DNA sequence: GTCTATACAGGGATAGAC
DNA sequence: GTCTATCCCTGTATAGAC
């Protein structure tokens, strides 16, 4: 098993709610970053609807009107956050699942890294997961497209493993179950939980290998 | 393995968003039922904050002011919904985990029934899970108390199983992982999904037995 | 216990100066 | 690109008649 790091994302490098933020907003011009950051924090603390555009602007140190220079609406801010966050999640899954090693090694690495990601970035992930229904149908489609990409990567890995000895009754069912283990971490994890995110990742990875009837190594 | 039904709840008996509703509102006087029902539907479709008290009242066929005859606030309605829904979830877990059979049989039954429950009632469960932070601290405490009860039941079952042959590295970690499998069903399940709720329950139960290193039977 | 009417606050978004 | 000021709508909750 390689001890490869999660690629380009420095998981665990920082400790605040703003982690995902710091990562996701890199692609944005400086002007939008402050608003982007402020919105993630505010949405994570109070939820999308309970957060006013005035809240976001105030956190960013701007006037209420400044938000509309950079984004056409509050929903557009949520959309950008969702696409950026899920895009990085997909990058984590892709790097681990297409890396070196046997299918069992890659499954271990993928579940470990995805779980760790969802713990470290639990606050921003919850924003995305809880507010899918607040996006316009088009914007929601962008998000579900990325979710389907992640599903297909995991399913491909399990099918490949099945040819190499995994014992899987229903590939689709097992794919969903393994991803549940990873994603649900964002629901229950809090920073004061006894196990560190990396440890939870390893525990989940070991359980996933059992679920597919594989052995690590 | 017994083919015992989920007790008193008729899981799978109906198909609409209002399932949980029909169950949870039985204990309420008739006057409150219509509002309770309307609120669950509205919260499930649009979310707590996006739903106005006017929406709820209109769905219930009442004037905007009528809601306040039965509930002191919109938050109180959410609180009642959450406590009722989680209370029934706990009843499902308790019946299955304290039933007859070996620890492996009871674990299978508990994961099966909890998963089926979360699929059938996914809409109302999502309301509870997504809006914990919208409750007052006291009301949120009521909800987390019940969640802890369910956690303790599952943990007790796993510890009992460990004395009877389960292979569990970290009981707390495995408890959370098994419950993730059950609860996360409410996040991804939709009524048009290919597997029926009962089938998902059996699939998850089989995977849970693998996670604890047990054999069914 | 239900209604109509309304008080009162707050939010999304825009206008127009600088 | 940021500000101040503001439009207009919606929301929670209450008052008081029936």
Question: Any descriptors?
Answer:
disordered N terminus; DNA-binding; 217 residues; Tetracycline Repressor, domain 2; mainly alpha; homodimer; 0% strand; 11 helices
Structure in a nutshell:
2 copies of one chain form a homodimer. Chain A has a single domain (about 20-210), classed as Tetracycline Repressor, domain 2, CATH 1.10.357.
Chain-wise SSE layout:
The structure is a homodimer.
Chain A: H1 19-24, H2 30-46, H3 53-59, H4 67-70, H5 74-97, H6 103-120, H7 122-130, H8 137-163, H9 171-183, H10 185-188, H11 197-211
Helix pairs in contact in A: 2-3, 2-7, 5-6, 5-7, 5-8, 6-8, 6-9, 6-11, 8-9, 9-11
Chain A binds a DNA duplex (18 and 18 nucleotides) through helix 4.
Count up the helices of chain A: 11
Helix percentage range of chain A: 55-70%
Distance between the termini of chain A: 7 Å
Rounded average pLDDT of chain A:
90
Structural class designation of chain A = mainly alpha
Annotated CATH topology of chain A = Tetracycline Repressor, domain 2
How many domain modules of chain A? 1
Indicate the low-confidence ranges of chain A by residue numbers.
1-18
Q: Give the overall form of chain A.
A: elongated
Number of strands of chain A: 0
* Chain pair forming the biggest interface: A-B, 33 and 33 residues
Which band does the percent of strand residues of chain A land in?
under 5%
Largest sheet entry of chain A: none
